[in-house]
Amino acid sequence: MQSFFSELQARAVSQMLDGEMDDHLGYEKHERSDQGNSRSGDTSKKVRGDQGELEIQVPRDRDDTFNPIIVPKRKNVIVSLYAKGMSVSDIENMMRDEYGFDLSESTISRITNRVAGDVIAWQNRPLDNVYLIVWIDG
Fold first, then answer.
1. Would you tell me which of 27, 89, 97, 107 could form a disulfide with 31, CB atoms 3.0–4.6 Å apart?
2. pLDDT tens digits, residue range 77-127?
3. CA-to-CA distance for 25 and 73, rounded, in angstroms?
4. Which domain holds residue 92?
């Protein structure tokens, strides 16, 4: 069960980072841009989260100007505020007060929309025919 939640959390963080990159570049991943800077793949990064060590995919840009806020370079910070039901303005205030990052409401909305889309896709995935469940009662 631990690996299930770890995988879910890693996917959510990767989607948040993709949303951050969308905002940084000014267009979404599936769109093309004639602007100078563009996406340049992903790098794997291990971070420590609520579910232990996670391996996430951090997007890169060609000009190397993308510095993620959710998982800053050389810091292991994972923001799960949206999943906890905080409003966009509450997240904006918390990020500024607690972490010293200024994020616009539109940036936060892009990030949370990416996560919401991935959660819906995960919820609608085909289920296996059999699942192993162990019930322990003390």
1. 27
2. 434 666 667 777 887 787 777 666 677 888 777 777 777 777 778 788 888
3. 18
4. 2-123
